[in-house]
Specification:
Helix content: 25-40%
Structural class: alpha/beta
Number of strands: 6
Number of helices: 6
Order of helices and strands: EHEEEHEHEHHH
Strand order of the largest sheet: 2-1-5-3-6-4
Shape: globular
Distance between the termini: 72 Å
Radius of gyration: 23 Å
Largest sheet: 6 strands, parallel
Length: about 240
């Protein structure tokens, strides 16, 4: 006998999510109500160097910065060279990244006085996963070292574990170590120190980030401990019980 033909109609294609035409985010996580309008003017010129992969990531914060800050722009590239920037940046140019053994960095608090007495600064920020960002900085430092100073935020500590969306209202993705923050928060903290009305600007940008995290957290699944961690915690608990006996 021949098998009966399958007369079931084909499944309809999955519906695409409706996107807000203003903030370019899905309607359920639209952020138009917290994006500053009009964009905030700043003394600092902000140039965001964005990795090509990051430009497609749904939790990328660069579009929120360029919509929120009047004097900001982004460039999609893996490496910064003299051909990447239209104009040669001035001597008051800084790039934000944690220090390494071969490339120390000045903390933002130590740079505070010089920044406020200098010509309007240019801030270069790398936007990518931490792995890609390290590669981008390493590939760009030969060019950056001619005119720019490496700066890091206060509080960076490579010896402690970074936060996650489960334990912070400012973290969208798991950070590799203490003091590592998103691109949006890094720029907000820079402006909080450098700009005349910096604390007000920082508060507005941090509020935007908190709202983004809050909306995203609604779609998280409960975090379950990994099997290895469960086994380890049981062993610790059994050891405690044995010592108490």
């Amino acid at each position: 006998m021949e098998p009966e033909p399958d007369n079931k109609p084909p499944s309809p294609p999955p519906k695409r999510r409706s996107i807000c035409h203003k903030c370019d985010r899905p309607i359920p996580v639209c952020l138009c109500h917290v994006i500053p309008t009009p964009p905030i003017p700043t003394r600092t010129q902000i140039i965001i160097i964005q990795h090509p992969h990051e430009s497609h990531h749904k939790l990328n914060t660069t579009p929120l910065l360029t919509k929120s800050l009047l004097n900001s722009s982004s460039i999609i590239t893996r490496r910064l060279t003299s051909n990447t920037l239209i104009n040669q940046p001035p001597s008051s140019t800084y790039y934000l990244f944690p220090p390494s053994q071969s490339s120390p960095a000045v903390t933002l608090s130590d740079l505070k006085t010089a920044l406020k007495n200098n010509t309007p600064p240019v801030l270069i920020v790398f936007d990518a996963t931490w792995k890609h960002a390290k590669e981008m900085v390493s590939a760009s430092e030969g060019y950056l070292s001619r005119f720019a100073t490496r700066v890091c935020l206060d509080g960076f500590d490579g010896g402690i574990e970074g936060g996650s969306i489960y334990d912070s209202d400012l973290v969208l993705r798991k950070e590799p170590c203490g003091g590592c923050v998103s691109t949006l928060e890094a720029v907000a903290r820079w402006l909080g120190v450098v700009e005349e009305n910096g604390l007000e600007i920082e508060d507005r940008l941090v509020g935007l980030l908190k709202e983004m995290v809050r909306l995203q957290a609604q779609f998280l699944k409960p975090m379950r401990p990994r099997p290895k961690l469960l086994k380890k915690s049981k062993q610790i608990e059994q050891g405690k019980n044995s010592s108490d006996a």
